[in-house]
Each structure stands twice: as structure tokens, then as C-alpha cells.
Amino acid sequence: MDDINRVIERNRQRYLDDLFTLLRQPSISAQDTGVRECARLLQGLMEEAGIRTRIFETARHPVVYGEAGEPDAEKAILVYGHYDVQPPEPLAEWLSPPFEPSVRDGKIYGRGSSDNKGQLFAHVKGLQSYLEARGGLPRGLKMKYIFEGEEEISSPNLEGFAAAHKDLLKADAAIFSDSHVHESGFPTVILGLKGMLYIELVVKTIKQDMHSLKAASLPSPVWRLVTLLSHIKGEDGVVKIPGYYDDVRRPTAEEIRAVEAIPYEKVAIMRDHGASHLIQGRTTDHYYYNLTFEPTANIAGIFSGYQGKGSKTVLPAEAHAKLDLRLVPDQKPKRVLNNLRDYLDDLGYNDVRIEVHGELEPSRTPLDNPWVAVAVRAVRKAYSMEPVIYPGIGGSGPNYVFTGTLGMPCVLVPFAAHDQANHAPNENMILEGYFNGIRTAAAIIDEAAKA
Amino acid sequence: MDDINRVIERNRQRYLDDLFTLLRQPSISAQDTGVRECARLLQGLMEEAGIRTRIFETARHPVVYGEAGEPDAEKAILVYGHYDVQPPEPLAEWLSPPFEPSVRDGKIYGRGSSDNKGQLFAHVKGLQSYLEARGGLPRGLKMKYIFEGEEEISSPNLEGFAAAHKDLLKADAAIFSDSHVHESGFPTVILGLKGMLYIELVVKTIKQDMHSLKAASLPSPVWRLVTLLSHIKGEDGVVKIPGYYDDVRRPTAEEIRAVEAIPYEKVAIMRDHGASHLIQGRTTDHYYYNLTFEPTANIAGIFSGYQGKGSKTVLPAEAHAKLDLRLVPDQKPKRVLNNLRDYLDDLGYNDVRIEVHGELEPSRTPLDNPWVAVAVRAVRKAYSMEPVIYPGIGGSGPNYVFTGTLGMPCVLVPFAAHDQANHAPNENMILEGYFNGIRTAAAIIDEAAKA
């Protein structure tokens, strides 16, 4: 790796300038701002790095696809990233403009610096440094790149694109770099994401809001919602939807050991979150255990009636609750939804409407998959540190398209810091994180060739 | 009464003009707009009608007090009203400006036309017509008037004022005209109002809103609130606060008969409110029975987390529920509050804050009180119709100051129509309702003298 590291050192400023070019181009998928321009710009930067590219149209924002190495190589790694970004609002809170990247205190500030342009571009530059140092990819290995423009709007076309291009995307493993390293600064390797069912429960009992004196005789939608919710989860925190835990995959002894090895202090976590306790899950109150292995039923929002200051006496007509149920393998959003509908009907809540706002499948690659060891070796080589291995994390993402539709292992190797402020003002990427990412990307090529 | 009716007929336009003068003067207690000016204007109009007046300052808005008749008369009737009004907003929805009264389709439109300037002024004009027809009040009878300027902000100084002026306010009965006649147009006589305890429950479990992935390990304030609420009322609608029903006064057989005699069609009520059923209370689903005799625990508002369109994945830091508990005699807001606090503490919810936004005592004058018969005879005479008698209604008000602090029977004799739109744009008073009110006020003097 010394040859590659020398190339990276020599090109530090150039690699940074190229990233800044990418960061300067807005690509706000939710607002349809600059996404196509960004796709073309990224295509050009990939071509310069030695990648053969092609842009695929989808129903909304294009996919930028690329390949490097011998076309008929037997082995292939598929790198996923997304070049779209979150809206930058509220603009007034940015210390430097979101689309004018700048370096302060060892951090690159700008929208997309970590989520996800900075991290995906480390793979582009990792390849470029490899090609410059070695004159080509290892014999028999092909690198593939799929950079979508719709991740921040829940990847509505990714699964369809993958299903329609299975041959093009065929690979031995998928690599994601869209998360963050451990709080301690240790690099991480992440093997799974949760799925999600996002629903809104809507209860309506009377035609319009009325004077609350009528609460003595007319049914309240809020009490009906509260009672319904108490059938979904009780005081013990266990979800009561029939069959909810039936499909929860039992963690292996190795996965449990890996989770228990993630550095963490219970008291510090409680203090940092201002919490008096951690949730006593079905088996433990271990922070990472429940984050990794336990599905949730969170109330992300509830609202009905008067919400202003002081008092107003109203019997509301409608009540709403928004729930995100984070699912673990092998739960299925559709099955949970059907079970919930049947359950509510059985309980007599057939008047309650369930609106579905989103569905994502969970994913988890087994610890003992050989490509996990490849990623771990690559990270160890790039950082000269032992990575922290997460069998899964609490968040959700499109990884299931790779583990599911495309049927390959999927390993996350993130480079951003844990306080990256993604989705928020002053998003940033630690400067050394970017170069660690470039080194890791090159090391992945090296290790993949040996695997 | 023919002599009085002739006086009223002769003065129709003048009585209407005087009311319009009063309606033109804004007196928005919540916004401190024009209240003092209105008190002085009302004072002048009362003096013109033959009432000796005096303005009493309170901590905020003045009380206009008046007397007519021999100073040393043994018998006294105390008429209560309020000259303050609700804010007129939203202004755009008024078909004619709120403080420029106008008559359309037999109705007087304007803020305060029914609530309560129109109704209190009927008493002023009733006295004036009586004095003009008969040359003075009946021997031995004195009329007293207490018109406050703070009813729309929950009468914060009325109880203190009454306690400090018990001699001044001494009377055989209090008459209120601050409600509405029956939907059918039949006049009503109302004998009770509910009390109220208005509280806000505040639950906080973490220091700030967080990504909902953390719901697997960190406690949710919304679930805690939902679980707590399920301890306050269950699926059967019965309030579970210990001792809640202990102080509920058992209705007499006569009161139950009176409630059952109130004209109503269950199917029509359900249709008018868009409800699939009426609440099955502890003993019956009779609309008026529960409205009159059963206390409530209504959720007037609930809110936490995301309330916009679609989905946002957040673990909220705080959750709020606003509850108005409408109390019946002989429940006490303070006792209910203490019982609730103890109950929540016993259940382990000692971290949950209870903010008190309002307390009102309930009131109910017994059906067999002789002053009820006086009011009924007066209404019968004025309308030539049999009044519908309500032992109580579902709303709340300061009546307990009269039944409690001042220890007198309190009878409501309203003149407004049921669709008066009080507290709303296009508030109105039926034109004939105003004159019926004047006739009723005069008849009350007549009947009181005979009692």
C-alpha cells in the first residue's frame, strides 16, 4: 500500500479540489434542483478517474453507473453511493454557504460533504490512486459503481432499476459508505440496517370540532386513538401486534459477542441523551443490543385538537398518530401491515384508517460471510486500527435492494465522523476522514483481488 | 303584562338603537380593548333606564353594578351578565363588521349581540319598560345588577369581588341570561352548570428530539403519555381517577324526569354531529342525561413530534395532553387534582408535570327551589309557551360564585337562539329573542314581587 499512499499524498490538493467541484454543484432531489447537472458533473469526474460511465434515466433522477477493470473479469465489487443531498434549509444557520465548501478546523463544511458526496467520491479517488500507482486493476477484478440521485427521497426507483439490470449490477459484494465511524474515532464496519413501515393512524368520530361540553355524550377520536395505541404497545414496551416478533431473526452467538464488544458506557449514553434510563427490551437494556436486534414501534408524531398556550375547550373531530416501525430481518413491512389491519379489525377499530407513508425491507449480512473479512482487512490496513464491527445499526436504507433483489452481501464502510451533522446545517466531513476513505477504497481493491 | 307589552312595542326602535350603541363599543377583555369605555357607556345606558349605578375597579376590568327600587326593600333579585366579548378574529369571515351591528333576516349580527350584551341589555330594557308602564318597582322588591368585564377570560376576579361585597350583592335569587333557548325555539330555564378542571400533562424523557432509530433504546415521552392516559380512562369510558365519582350528586327522580322530558331525537343528534353512536355512559346513552349529570375527562388537545405531511422519523423529547374535566355537583376541582396527582405518583408517573390552566366549581339549583317556579311563570307569561327545564347543562360558568360564595339559587333564563354563533364569526341574536328577553325580564319583576 506504500505506493498507493504516496500517490494519495502527492495528489492531496487535487483530490480535494475535485471533491469541492462536486460539492459546489447543488443536487437537491426533493426540490429537483441541479440533480441532472450534478449527475453529468459526477460522470465527468469519474471518467477522469478512469471509470467507464453511463447515465441511466429513471422516472425522476438519473443513476450514474460506472465500471473499471477488464470487462470479462470474474470477480466484481459493486460500490453504492448517492449524489443527491438534503435541502440546505435553514440557510441562516450555516456558518459558510452550503454549496461553497470550505475547510475549517480540519473539517470540510458543505452540504453533501459527508452525506454522501464526500464518501462516495473517496471510492472514485481510491480507484484513481490505485490505477495511478499500479497501472491498472488486479487481473480478474472488476469495480462497479452505482450512484443514485434519489436516496434522500427514499430511493423510489432503485429497486426497480436493480431488478431491471441484474446482469449489469452482478457482483460478489456491495460496499456502502453512508454512515459514520465510532464516536471514539475507531473505524466501523456495519453489516445491517433496519427496515421500516411508516404509517399514520387516522381516527374520526364526529364531523367537526365541537365545544367540549359535548364530550359527555359524543365519542372522542383522541380517546379512541389512545386506547387503540395501548393495544399496539403496553407499559412493558413489548409490541402487541400479533406475530410481530415471529419473523425476528435470532442473533447468532458471534453477532451478540460483536455487539457486546462495541465500546460504550451506559451512564455516558444516558447523560448525553438526558435520559433517566435505557429501555428494558425483551431481554436486556443493552444500548447496542436493542438498537441492533430489536424492532421498534415509535410514535414519531401525535396530534389532535388544541395545541396553543393555555386552555381551549374543544372536542376534536379527528386524531392522528404517525408511527415508524423499524423492522429487523426477517420481518416484512407488508406482513406487519396486514397483521396490524387484521388486529385492529378484530379489536373493533375497523373505522380507523391506516395511511402508509413508506416501506423499507431490513437487511443483514452474516458476520461470517467472507467479504466481511475482506472489508475488515482493508479498513485495518488503511487506518492501522482495528475496526468496530456492528452486526447492524438502528437506521434504515436501501441496502436490502442489494442483499435482497441482487442477492449479494452488503458491507458498510463509512468514513464520516459521528458528528457529521448530516441532514442539518453545517454538515461536515472530517478532512482526514476523506483521505482515510480514499486509502480504504484502494485497500478494498487490493484485498478483494486476494480474496 | 299588556301595559308593559304596549310600552315595549312603542319603544321597539329606541330599545334596538340603544342596544346598537352598546354593540358598537368594542370590549375585548382578552386583548384589553375598549373594556373600560364600554363599562362607562353601559353605566350611562343603565342610568337612562332608571338604574342607580356604580363602577367597581378590579385587578383588571371593572364591574358595573346597579340597583333599582327602594333601597330598603326586603326582597332582591340579582341579575348577572357580562359586557366583555370574545375577540372578533377571524375578521375576514364576518359578512358585516363585528362592531357595526346590522339586522338581516330577522337577526341582529355583531360581536356581543347574544354573548352577552344583547341578553344582559334585555334585562336593562325590561326594567325600563316596567318602570315606564308602572311608574316604579313593586313595593318591597329591589333589582340588583352585576355586569362583569372578565367572563370571556374566565372571571378571574368575580369570586373575590363577591366575597368582598356580600352585603351589596345580597339577594333572594340570581338570574343569568347567558345561554340559548331549545333547538325547537321553545324557551328554556336552566338550573345548573358544570365545573371544570383544565390541566395539561407534560412528559419529557430525553433532552431533545432525536433520530427515531434511537427509539429502540431510549424512552419515548409519547408512549409514556399514552400509557398514562389509558390509566385515566379505559375503553369503557369510565374515569379511573380514584374517588372521581364519589362526590357526584345523585340526581333526584324529578331531575331525571325533567331531563327525559327535554325534546330530542337520538337519530337526529347522531346525524347532526356525524357520529355513529352516542357515548354509553355509566348508566345510559341518553344524550341529555350524560350532558347534565355525568362528569367528563375530555382530551381537548394532544401533541408531540412531527405533524406535517407524510413522514419524518423522530423520537420526540416531549409530549403534551390538554384535558378538560367537566365536573358536576358536588365534585371539587382541587380534590380531583389532588387525587390525580396521588394516583399518577402511585403509578410511578411522578416525573409527569401537571400544569393547571383553570378551575371552576360546578353549580346546580334544586328543581323544587321556589325561585325556579317564579322564573318558569315569568317565561311562560312572556313567551306564551311552556319552557323546557334543564336541571343542568354541559357547559361551565361563574354561576358557582352565586350558588356557592353568595349562597343563593341561580336560574338561567336565556334569550339567544341555539345557533347564535357565539365565540365565532357572524355572532347573532334573533331579533324577536331580544324583545322576548325584554318581556321576560319585566315578567320576572312582576312574578318576583308576587313570590
Task: Detail the topology: elements first, then pairings.
2 copies of one chain form a homodimer.
Chain A: H1 2-10, H2 12-24, H3 35-49, E1 52-56, E2 63-69, E3 75-82, E4 102-104, E5 107-109, H4 117-134, E6 141-148, H5 158-164, H6 166-169, E7 173-176, E8 188-190, E9 192-193, E10 195-204, E11 210-211, H7 221-232, H8 253-260, H9 266-273, H10 287-293, E12 298-305, E13 314-315, E14 318-327, H11 333-346, E15 353-360, E16 363-364, H12 370-383, E17 388-390, H13 400-405, E18 410-412, E19 428-430, H14 431-450
Parallel strand pairs in A: 3-6, 3-7, 7-18, 8-17
Antiparallel strand pairs in A: 1-2, 2-6, 4-5, 5-19, 9-16, 10-14, 10-15, 11-13, 12-14
How would you describe this protein?
- Chain A is an alpha+beta fold and 451 residues long.
- Chain A folds into two domains: 2-193 and 363-450, Zn peptidases (Aminopeptidase, 3-Layer(aba) Sandwich), CATH 3.40.630.10; 195-248 and 295-360, Alpha-Beta Plaits.
- Chain A contains 14 helices and 19 strands.
- The first copy, chain A, has a six-stranded mixed beta sheet with strand order 1-2-6-3-7-18.
- In chain A, helix 4 packs across helix 14 (431-450).
In short:
The structure is a homodimer of 451-residue chains. Chain A is an alpha+beta fold. The first copy, chain A, is built from 14 helices and 19 strands.
Secondary structure tally: strands of chain A: 19
The shape of chain A is globular
Provide the spatial order of strands within the biggest beta sheet of chain A: 1-2-6-3-7-18
* Biggest β-sheet description of chain A: 6 strands, mixed
**Which percent band covers the strand fraction of chain A?**
15-25%
What's the CATH architecture name of the largest domain in chain A?
3-Layer(aba) Sandwich
Number of structural units classed as domains of chain A: 2
Q: Determine the CATH topology of the largest domain in chain A.
A: Aminopeptidase
Task: Give me the Rg of chain A, rounded.
Answer: 24 Å
Give the class-level CATH name of the largest domain in chain A.
Alpha Beta
Q: End-to-end distance of chain A, in Å?
A: 16 Å
Task: Name the CATH homologous superfamily of the largest domain in chain A.
Answer: Zn peptidases
Category by helix and strand content of chain A: alpha+beta
Bin the helical content of chain A: 25-40%
Tell me which oligomeric state these chains represent.
homodimer
Which consecutive residue ranges of chain A, at least 5 long each, have pLDDT under 50?
A: none
SS field, number of helical segments of chain A: 14
Q: Mean of residue pLDDT of chain A?
A: 96
Greatest interface: A-B, 75 and 75 residues
